[in-house]
Amino acid sequence: MSIVVGAHPQNISLSLLARRQQASPTLREHDIRFFVYGAGSQTIQLFETGVLQFGGTGATPPILAKSQGLGVAVVGMSDPRHERGGLLVRADSPFHKLEDLRDQGIGLMPLSWHQQFLAAELEAAGLSWHDVVARDIIPATAADAFIQGLLPAIVATDPLYAKIATTTPVRVLAAPGGTFSNRSVYWGRHDLLRRQPEAVRALLHALVDSDRQVGANPQEAASLLDGLNGWSASDWLKAIQGRNWGVYPPDETFLQEQQDHADLFAHFGLIPAPIDVSDTVDASLLTALPA
Known about the structure:
This protein has 291 residues and is α/β, with parallel strands linked by helices. The protein is 40% helix and 18% strand. It has twelve helices and ten strands. The longest helix has 20 residues, at 197-216. This is Alkanesulfonates-binding protein. Residues 37-221 form the SsuA/THI5-like domain.
Protein backbone atom coordinates (compact mmCIF):
# COMPACT_ATOMS: atom_id res chain seq x y z
CA MET A 1 0.00 0.00 0.00
CA SER A 2 1.40 3.40 -0.97
CA ILE A 3 2.23 6.01 1.65
CA VAL A 4 1.35 9.63 0.92
CA VAL A 5 3.64 12.15 2.61
CA GLY A 6 2.71 15.82 2.86
CA ALA A 7 5.15 18.52 1.76
CA HIS A 8 4.39 22.22 2.23
CA PRO A 9 6.50 25.41 2.24
CA GLN A 10 6.59 25.70 6.03
CA ASN A 11 8.53 22.42 6.28
CA ILE A 12 11.70 22.87 4.28
CA SER A 13 13.04 19.36 4.90
CA LEU A 14 10.07 17.53 3.40
CA SER A 15 9.80 20.08 0.59
CA LEU A 16 13.39 19.26 -0.36
CA LEU A 17 12.90 15.51 -0.03
CA ALA A 18 9.87 15.77 -2.33
CA ARG A 19 12.09 17.45 -4.92
CA ARG A 20 14.70 14.69 -4.55
CA GLN A 21 12.32 11.74 -4.56
CA GLN A 22 13.21 10.61 -8.09
CA ALA A 23 16.82 10.15 -6.94
CA SER A 24 15.80 7.89 -4.05
CA PRO A 25 15.35 4.20 -4.93
CA THR A 26 14.38 3.58 -1.29
CA LEU A 27 11.29 5.76 -1.60
CA ARG A 28 10.27 4.07 -4.85
CA GLU A 29 10.86 0.61 -3.37
CA HIS A 30 8.40 1.33 -0.55
CA ASP A 31 5.88 3.14 -2.80
CA ILE A 32 6.27 6.42 -0.92
CA ARG A 33 4.93 9.44 -2.77
CA PHE A 34 4.37 13.08 -1.94
CA PHE A 35 1.37 15.35 -1.94
CA VAL A 36 2.60 18.93 -2.27
CA TYR A 37 0.26 21.57 -0.85
CA GLY A 38 0.42 25.24 -0.09
CA ALA A 39 -0.21 25.64 3.65
CA GLY A 40 0.94 23.60 6.62
CA SER A 41 -2.17 24.80 8.46
CA GLN A 42 -4.14 22.21 6.47
CA THR A 43 -2.12 19.21 7.69
CA ILE A 44 -4.53 18.00 10.38
CA GLN A 45 -7.48 18.20 7.99
CA LEU A 46 -5.52 16.26 5.36
CA PHE A 47 -4.78 13.55 7.94
CA GLU A 48 -8.43 13.43 9.01
CA THR A 49 -9.72 13.03 5.46
CA GLY A 50 -7.21 10.31 4.58
CA VAL A 51 -5.24 12.37 2.06
CA LEU A 52 -2.03 12.06 4.10
CA GLN A 53 -0.59 9.32 6.26
CA PHE A 54 2.62 11.17 7.17
CA GLY A 55 3.68 14.79 7.43
CA GLY A 56 5.94 17.38 8.99
CA THR A 57 5.07 20.54 10.91
CA GLY A 58 6.01 22.37 14.06
CA ALA A 59 5.35 20.62 17.37
CA THR A 60 1.88 22.09 17.90
CA PRO A 61 -0.30 20.22 15.35
CA PRO A 62 0.27 16.77 16.94
CA ILE A 63 -1.06 18.18 20.23
CA LEU A 64 -4.09 19.65 18.48
CA ALA A 65 -4.63 16.42 16.53
CA LYS A 66 -4.66 14.38 19.76
CA SER A 67 -7.12 16.83 21.31
CA GLN A 68 -9.42 16.18 18.33
CA GLY A 69 -9.23 12.40 18.74
CA LEU A 70 -6.80 11.70 15.88
CA GLY A 71 -4.34 8.88 16.59
CA VAL A 72 -0.89 10.14 15.55
CA ALA A 73 2.68 9.97 16.82
CA VAL A 74 5.87 11.97 16.30
CA VAL A 75 8.66 9.66 15.10
CA GLY A 76 11.37 12.21 14.28
CA MET A 77 12.36 15.72 15.28
CA SER A 78 14.91 18.41 14.56
CA ASP A 79 17.16 20.09 17.09
CA PRO A 80 15.77 23.26 18.69
CA ARG A 81 15.73 26.03 16.11
CA HIS A 82 16.92 29.52 17.00
CA GLU A 83 15.60 31.19 13.88
CA ARG A 84 15.80 34.84 12.90
CA GLY A 85 12.68 36.70 13.90
CA GLY A 86 10.03 35.70 16.43
CA LEU A 87 7.48 37.97 18.09
CA LEU A 88 7.90 41.26 16.24
CA VAL A 89 6.73 44.80 16.84
CA ARG A 90 7.61 47.88 14.86
CA ALA A 91 10.77 49.63 16.07
CA ASP A 92 8.84 52.91 16.35
CA SER A 93 6.11 51.34 18.51
CA PRO A 94 5.71 51.86 22.27
CA PHE A 95 6.03 48.09 22.87
CA HIS A 96 9.34 47.07 24.46
CA LYS A 97 8.40 43.90 26.33
CA LEU A 98 5.69 41.27 26.10
CA GLU A 99 3.73 42.82 28.95
CA ASP A 100 3.28 45.96 26.82
CA LEU A 101 1.12 43.95 24.41
CA ARG A 102 -1.81 43.59 26.81
CA ASP A 103 -5.05 43.95 24.81
CA GLN A 104 -3.06 44.29 21.57
CA GLY A 105 -3.48 42.29 18.38
CA ILE A 106 -0.93 39.62 17.46
CA GLY A 107 -0.96 37.79 14.12
CA LEU A 108 -0.16 34.07 14.18
CA MET A 109 0.17 31.59 11.33
CA PRO A 110 -2.93 29.35 11.56
CA LEU A 111 -2.57 25.91 13.21
CA SER A 112 1.18 26.22 13.59
CA TRP A 113 3.96 26.31 16.17
CA HIS A 114 3.20 30.02 16.65
CA GLN A 115 0.47 29.18 19.17
CA GLN A 116 2.82 27.04 21.25
CA PHE A 117 5.59 29.64 21.06
CA LEU A 118 3.33 32.48 22.16
CA ALA A 119 1.66 30.43 24.91
CA ALA A 120 5.06 29.52 26.39
CA GLU A 121 6.26 33.13 26.23
CA LEU A 122 3.05 34.45 27.81
CA GLU A 123 3.31 31.97 30.68
CA ALA A 124 6.96 32.89 31.24
CA ALA A 125 5.94 36.55 31.43
CA GLY A 126 3.15 35.82 33.90
CA LEU A 127 0.42 36.55 31.35
CA SER A 128 -2.61 34.63 30.11
CA TRP A 129 -3.62 33.93 26.53
CA HIS A 130 -6.59 36.24 27.04
CA ASP A 131 -4.37 39.14 28.10
CA VAL A 132 -3.55 39.64 24.41
CA VAL A 133 -5.65 39.44 21.24
CA ALA A 134 -3.84 36.64 19.40
CA ARG A 135 -5.54 35.51 16.20
CA ASP A 136 -4.76 33.12 13.35
CA ILE A 137 -4.17 35.20 10.21
CA ILE A 138 -2.76 34.08 6.86
CA PRO A 139 0.92 35.15 7.00
CA ALA A 140 0.89 37.38 3.91
CA THR A 141 -2.19 39.23 5.17
CA ALA A 142 -0.77 39.60 8.67
CA ALA A 143 2.51 40.92 7.25
CA ASP A 144 0.70 43.50 5.11
CA ALA A 145 -1.29 44.73 8.11
CA PHE A 146 1.84 44.85 10.28
CA ILE A 147 3.91 46.74 7.69
CA GLN A 148 1.10 49.29 7.27
CA GLY A 149 1.01 49.86 11.03
CA LEU A 150 -2.45 48.35 11.46
CA LEU A 151 -1.44 45.19 13.37
CA PRO A 152 0.63 45.82 16.52
CA ALA A 153 2.56 42.53 16.53
CA ILE A 154 3.24 39.46 14.42
CA VAL A 155 5.10 36.18 14.81
CA ALA A 156 7.36 35.73 11.77
CA THR A 157 10.63 33.99 10.94
CA ASP A 158 12.61 33.74 7.70
CA PRO A 159 11.87 34.11 4.87
CA LEU A 160 8.87 36.27 5.88
CA TYR A 161 10.90 37.99 8.61
CA ALA A 162 13.50 39.12 6.07
CA LYS A 163 10.77 40.59 3.84
CA ILE A 164 9.23 42.50 6.75
CA ALA A 165 12.57 43.72 8.12
CA THR A 166 13.70 45.12 4.76
CA THR A 167 10.68 47.42 4.59
CA THR A 168 9.91 48.11 8.25
CA PRO A 169 12.40 48.41 11.13
CA VAL A 170 11.35 45.93 13.80
CA ARG A 171 12.01 45.00 17.40
CA VAL A 172 12.07 41.31 18.42
CA LEU A 173 10.35 40.85 21.79
CA ALA A 174 10.86 37.08 21.96
CA ALA A 175 12.78 34.64 19.77
CA PRO A 176 12.03 30.95 19.14
CA GLY A 177 14.38 28.27 20.41
CA GLY A 178 14.46 29.41 24.03
CA THR A 179 11.35 29.19 26.23
CA PHE A 180 9.86 27.09 23.43
CA SER A 181 12.34 24.77 21.70
CA ASN A 182 10.85 25.30 18.21
CA ARG A 183 11.50 21.92 16.60
CA SER A 184 10.29 20.58 13.31
CA VAL A 185 8.57 17.25 13.89
CA TYR A 186 7.70 14.36 11.59
CA TRP A 187 4.60 12.39 12.44
CA GLY A 188 2.25 9.77 11.11
CA ARG A 189 -1.01 8.02 11.80
CA HIS A 190 -0.89 5.22 14.35
CA ASP A 191 -2.29 2.74 11.84
CA LEU A 192 0.52 3.52 9.37
CA LEU A 193 3.21 3.17 12.03
CA ARG A 194 1.82 -0.22 13.09
CA ARG A 195 1.16 -1.54 9.58
CA GLN A 196 4.28 -0.39 7.70
CA PRO A 197 7.10 0.30 10.17
CA GLU A 198 9.85 -0.65 7.71
CA ALA A 199 8.54 1.79 5.12
CA VAL A 200 8.42 4.54 7.75
CA ARG A 201 12.02 3.73 8.74
CA ALA A 202 13.06 3.97 5.10
CA LEU A 203 11.33 7.33 4.79
CA LEU A 204 13.05 8.64 7.91
CA HIS A 205 16.45 7.46 6.71
CA ALA A 206 15.88 9.21 3.37
CA LEU A 207 14.93 12.36 5.28
CA VAL A 208 18.08 12.14 7.41
CA ASP A 209 20.20 11.82 4.26
CA SER A 210 18.43 14.74 2.58
CA ASP A 211 18.99 16.95 5.64
CA ARG A 212 22.69 16.04 5.59
CA GLN A 213 22.84 17.24 2.00
CA VAL A 214 21.26 20.55 3.03
CA GLY A 215 23.90 21.09 5.69
CA ALA A 216 26.69 20.23 3.26
CA ASN A 217 25.41 22.35 0.36
CA PRO A 218 22.84 24.99 1.37
CA GLN A 219 23.12 26.77 -1.98
CA GLU A 220 22.04 23.62 -3.83
CA ALA A 221 19.09 23.22 -1.46
CA ALA A 222 18.06 26.84 -1.98
CA SER A 223 18.15 26.37 -5.75
CA LEU A 224 15.77 23.41 -5.43
CA LEU A 225 13.32 25.63 -3.54
CA ASP A 226 13.53 28.55 -5.97
CA GLY A 227 10.01 29.86 -6.59
CA LEU A 228 8.38 27.87 -3.79
CA ASN A 229 5.66 29.95 -2.13
CA GLY A 230 6.79 32.94 -4.19
CA TRP A 231 10.26 33.11 -2.59
CA SER A 232 13.49 33.18 -4.60
CA ALA A 233 16.50 30.93 -4.02
CA SER A 234 18.25 33.81 -2.23
CA ASP A 235 15.24 34.21 0.09
CA TRP A 236 15.31 30.52 0.91
CA LEU A 237 19.08 30.57 1.45
CA LYS A 238 18.64 32.97 4.38
CA ALA A 239 16.16 30.58 5.99
CA ILE A 240 18.35 27.54 5.32
CA GLN A 241 21.49 29.14 6.73
CA GLY A 242 19.62 30.38 9.80
CA ARG A 243 18.92 26.91 11.20
CA ASN A 244 20.68 23.65 11.98
CA TRP A 245 19.89 20.45 10.10
CA GLY A 246 19.30 16.88 11.15
CA VAL A 247 16.51 14.49 12.17
CA TYR A 248 16.60 12.60 15.47
CA PRO A 249 14.41 10.26 17.54
CA PRO A 250 12.06 12.19 19.84
CA ASP A 251 13.32 11.99 23.42
CA GLU A 252 11.96 12.35 26.94
CA THR A 253 12.78 16.07 27.02
CA PHE A 254 10.63 16.63 23.95
CA LEU A 255 7.80 14.51 25.35
CA GLN A 256 7.85 16.46 28.61
CA GLU A 257 7.73 19.78 26.74
CA GLN A 258 4.78 18.52 24.71
CA GLN A 259 2.93 17.42 27.84
CA ASP A 260 3.68 20.71 29.61
CA HIS A 261 2.39 22.68 26.65
CA ALA A 262 -0.68 20.46 26.22
CA ASP A 263 -1.46 21.23 29.88
CA LEU A 264 -0.88 24.92 29.18
CA PHE A 265 -3.17 24.79 26.13
CA ALA A 266 -5.93 23.30 28.29
CA HIS A 267 -5.34 25.95 30.98
CA PHE A 268 -5.52 28.74 28.38
CA GLY A 269 -8.61 27.23 26.74
CA LEU A 270 -6.87 26.48 23.43
CA ILE A 271 -8.02 22.85 23.62
CA PRO A 272 -11.28 21.77 25.27
CA ALA A 273 -9.83 19.53 28.00
CA PRO A 274 -6.53 18.21 29.39
CA ILE A 275 -4.95 15.37 27.39
CA ASP A 276 -2.21 12.79 27.91
CA VAL A 277 0.21 13.06 24.97
CA SER A 278 2.37 10.04 25.85
CA ASP A 279 1.06 8.07 22.86
CA THR A 280 1.92 10.92 20.46
CA VAL A 281 5.67 10.20 20.63
CA ASP A 282 7.36 7.05 19.27
CA ALA A 283 11.16 6.89 19.35
CA SER A 284 11.41 3.30 18.11
CA LEU A 285 11.35 3.86 14.36
CA LEU A 286 14.31 6.19 13.85
CA THR A 287 17.02 3.65 14.65
CA ALA A 288 20.12 2.20 13.00
CA LEU A 289 20.78 5.39 11.06
CA PRO A 290 22.98 5.08 7.98
CA ALA A 291 26.55 6.30 8.47
